[in-house]
């Protein structure tokens, strides 16, 4: 009888430890997904800013070209 209680207690402890590991794994996975999404957004923003700066340069070049045209 005492052994059955001890075995049940060990099983409960193991089950609780398994649930805690699963919860930690889930939290790590969610954190990694969140970080990946933030990195993706940062990369998109950086690409967008690079594209905008390219347009500014193109506009500047166009302005220089127009100002050199004799009237």
UniProtKB/TrEMBL annotation:
<protein>
    <submittedName>
        <fullName>Uncharacterized protein</fullName>
    </submittedName>
</protein>
<feature type="compositionally biased region" description="Basic and acidic residues">
    <location>
        <begin position="1"/>
        <end position="37"/>
    </location>
</feature>
<dbReference type="InterPro" id="IPR022132">
    <property type="entry name" value="Abdominal-A"/>
</dbReference>
<feature type="region of interest" description="Disordered">
    <location>
        <begin position="1"/>
        <end position="71"/>
    </location>
</feature>
<dbReference type="Pfam" id="PF12407">
    <property type="entry name" value="Abdominal-A"/>
</dbReference>
